Amino acid sequence: MGRRLNPHSRELWQPVMSNKQLKEKFPLHDIHLSVSQGPTMKEGKYTSIFVSIAVILDVAGLILFFVGIFAPLSFWDFFVLSGPLLIFMSTFFWIFWYMGNIKVSDEELNLTKHDI
């Protein structure tokens, strides 16, 4: 029998409940969750954040790039180089957006209750 900390007793360690009581209270078959019982994500909530960040970075990168090309500035190279860097950084958010929109059916996953 395992010993558990009981905060209501004066002893430091005493068993809260026996192993039999633990198994009765927390049966093993209740631990496994089915796919439908798992945590769900609201449809499009987080992917819209990723796509909006990606579009903002793309637009800002293009603006910086074209300012560096067409504006008569002495530090044009900063704009010409930082614009494509922002566009490159936006690809990570495009990938997150794409991965968030992938739909896989339960049959394709071949998951059973015990695999989760």
Task: Explain what the structure shows.
The chain is mainly α. It has 2 domains: 1-31, no CATH class; 32-115. It has helices at 19-25, 45-70, 76-100, 106-109. The two termini are 29 Å apart. The model has no long low-confidence stretch (mean pLDDT 77).
Which stretches are poorly predicted, pLDDT < 50 over at least 5 residues? none
Q: What would the average pLDDT be, to the nearest integer? A: 77
Strand content: under 5%
**What letter string, H or E per element, gives the SSE order?**
HHHH
Total count of helical runs of at least 4 residues: 4
Q: What is the radius of gyration computed over CA atoms, rounded to a whole number of angstroms?
A: 28 Å
How many individual domains? 2
Number of strand elements: 0
Structural class: mainly alpha
Q: Distance between termini?
A: 29 Å
Q: Give the overall silhouette.
A: elongated
